[in-house]
Specification:
single chain, globular, DNA polymerase, domain 1, mainly alpha, 0% strand, 4 helices, 56% helix
Length: 84
């Protein structure tokens, strides 16, 4: 099964999408779809990832704007919201 970013939710309310906006991750948006999909896949496999888990899962995604700290924060926020 293949899921696109549009398939995460009909109205953008997937926990990762909401966290991305809450933490203000995007700058240029070029890498955003890949980052969000990788984060969603990580949280599907591991709902409570460690920093190392996040870094390993996101390692193949390059963000030229350098928002890696915000990306990690958004993933942690999404993880917390899924378990709340």
């Amino acid at each position: 099964e293949i899921t696109t970013i549009e398939g995460l939710s009909e109205n953008g309310d997937h926990p990762v999408q909401k966290a991305w906006l809450e933490i203000d991750v995007p700058q240029c948006g070029y890498c955003q779809a890949g980052q969000i999909m990788s984060a969603a896949a990580l949280l599907q496999r591991n709902p409570n990832p460690s920093d190392t888990d996040i870094e390993t899962a996101m390692n193949g995604n390059i963000c030229r704007c350098g928002t890696y700290t915000r990306i990690k924060a958004a993933i942690k926020t999404a993880a917390r919201s899924q378990t709340a």
